[in-house]
Amino acid sequence: MSTRSDVDRSPLFGVPRRLVSLIWLPIVLALLFLTPGQGVAPAWLWAGLVPAVGGWLLFALRRELSPPATVLTSVFLAGGGIVLLAGSDGWTTSAAFPMMAVFVAAMRLPYRAALLVDVPLIAVTTIVVGPYGSVWDVLLVVAALTAMVLFGFGRRDARRRAEEHEKALVADARAREEHARAEAIADRARVARDVHDVLAHSLSALAVQLQGARLMALRDGAAPDTVAQIERAQRLASDGITEARRAVRALREGPGPVDVAGELRELGRAHPGATVDVDEGLRLGAREGETVLRTAQEALSNARKHAPGAPVTVSLRQDGDGAELEVVDVAGAPPPPGDGAGSGLTGMAERAALVGAELETGPTPDGWRVRLLLPAHGRIAP
């Protein structure tokens, strides 16, 4: 399939057509000066050569010309060539300039404007080349100039078709992108329904069962520790319902505004021994805020699992033009080999990559550290 770049290149040489046009100029000049029988009178030579060469260079070096500039280019080319033909004897190499003139007008002007320019140029050139020995000589000159006009029309139509083809390709690519986006939205909606129908309903049923279990434990005089455990499980189920609803909303509507500071403090309150420190005035975008919360949540969950009861520090602060989240637990010793290799860290790394952030995790002399570095574009100016 052809494109505009293909049309703008010579099929013979494989180089831009403008360069080919520029190469032809010294060839024409060499034939004009070196070939016997040209016979251009000195008085006519430079008067015609200057505008003709100037018009040729303007056409060859400028890819796009306005209609008035195109008309002037054709007039310079044809005028200079006609002057050279007037100072020579008959049809000589100087005819290359009027031929180029009608070609330029046909290629770069609308049909009607091109004909208004080319017909007078063809007539004047035909008259200047005479006198003729027969009518066939007249027809030969007219046919040569007309062929250049038709060649110009063909080149312009080829460029127009290439541009229309490129526009069709762009429209087709845009349609495919819209179709893919619609399919992605439909998939997210389907996943949201599945999460809501399965996970949220299951957690709601679990919360109801735990509430009944707590009431039965209170009725039967169960130990306070047992009741506390049931209440803690009930809170976890309620938190799971909240997180499931948030996930469903994010899948259906995309990430929404997040109160990062408030959510982090809420996570800290749910984790015994956690301290939360957030820089005042620091604001994050929806996706970045969600990444911070999920990273902190996973880090706290890992700390609760691998270092129960250990103090944990959660800090979110400005870092240059970006932001930094750091979660450090102090268990008194580094974790045993193999800790930290689960899917939770993989999920955190994938979330960080989606927003262009850097995630660093690893042991410290007395515990474990998770560090998330958000880029500058992840922040919203206060």
SSE map:
Layout: H1 4-7, H2 17-34, H3 42-61, H4 67-86, H5 96-108, H6 111-129, H7 135-219, H8 224-253, H9 260-270, E1 274-278, E2 283-284, H10 286-306, E3 312-319, E4 322-330, H11 343-354, E5 358-364, E6 367-374, E7 379-380
Parallel strand pairs: 1-3
Antiparallel strand pairs: 2-7, 3-4, 4-6, 5-6
Helix pairs in contact: 2-3, 3-4, 3-5, 4-5, 4-6, 5-6, 5-7, 6-7, 7-8, 9-10, 10-11
Notes on the structure:
It catalyses: ATP + protein L-histidine = ADP + protein N-phospho-L-histidine. It is an enzyme of class 2 (transferase). Its EC number is 2.7.13.3. Residues 188-254 form the Signal transduction histidine kinase subgroup 3 dimerisation and phosphoacceptor domain. With 382 residues, the chain is of the alpha+beta class. It has 2 domains: 4-172, no CATH class; 258-382, Heat Shock Protein 90. It is built from 11 helices and 7 strands. It has helices spanning 4-7, 17-34, 42-61, 67-86, 96-108, 111-129, 135-219, 224-253, 260-270, 286-306, 343-354; strands at residues 274-278, 283-284, 312-319, 322-330, 358-364, 367-374, 379-380. Mean pLDDT is 79; it is low at 1-7 and 10-14.
